[in-house]
Amino acid sequence: MSSKLGGKDGKTPPSAATNLIAGGGAGMMEALVCHPLDTIKVRMQLSRRARQPGAPSRGFIKTGAEIVRRETPLGLYKGLGAVLTGIVPKMAIRFTSFEAYKQLLADKKTGVVSGSSTFLAGLAAGVTEAVAVVTPMEVIKIRLQAQHHSMADPLDVPKYRNAAHALYTVVKEEGFGALYRGVSLTALRQGSNQAVNFTAYTYFKEALLRRQPDNAALPTWQTTLIGLVSGAMGPLSNAPIDTIKTRLQKTPAEPGVSAFKRITAIAADMFKQEGFHAFYKGITPRIMRVAPGQAVTFTVYEFLKDKLENSRPLPLTGSNYQR
Asked: What pTM was computed for the model?
């Protein structure tokens, strides 16, 4: 698999402003549609109930129903404010940095980007977004999602009232560094996600473009389909990393205990107390969230990018996501 910078149609790569608007719009739509599944995933990952031999596991439907019953349907949207705050810079960084890394890794003479270079560019883009935006956003989001208060009871006051209050409280009580708890695991998760995602999406898109008459753009349904398939691959490759990360970010740091020791202790305790299956808790809602989430992201991104490019030129130079 290989591709050429600038796309087959020879158009100028989308600007950074285009990526900011198109990527941000796509990310916001994805968050609004898929956030309830993320909340269910987090609750399942934080559940410490050991599975007894022969006993049925508590699935995502039962977990979701319990949240709705105890905390109202709005409980499924806990932490959404933190996600919406960070989603625009996150998506802008993802698409812009991906193209920047692709340009660095492209063949200097031909401009061709190999499959391995696409993988490395996706990996680097995922790490970049994790360090710049995703880790603090995830810490705040998980703290909000982990609270079991009822949204309908005004007397049931949670520790963290909203994203801004959670940010203030975490920094005040635990220091600014608490926002970067689990940054190594988050970078590993985001990097592997985007490496797999961009590589698979690029491969599928190029294969379908070769079958389009007159080198036309892909129909929306095909963009959605390949986004769905490529989006499902990441969670399957890094589920244990995501589960350990969630548990690490949910609790304050222990004085004198390094992040590495906490990570290994969490992993060892999970295996001892809950068994190997604990590392894959929440995998069903995660795939159900990430796969359609990527389908929404790529579909909306491609749609908004084309609209912006066809309306008026945006002067800033920037990235191109496999036009």
From this structure: 0.76
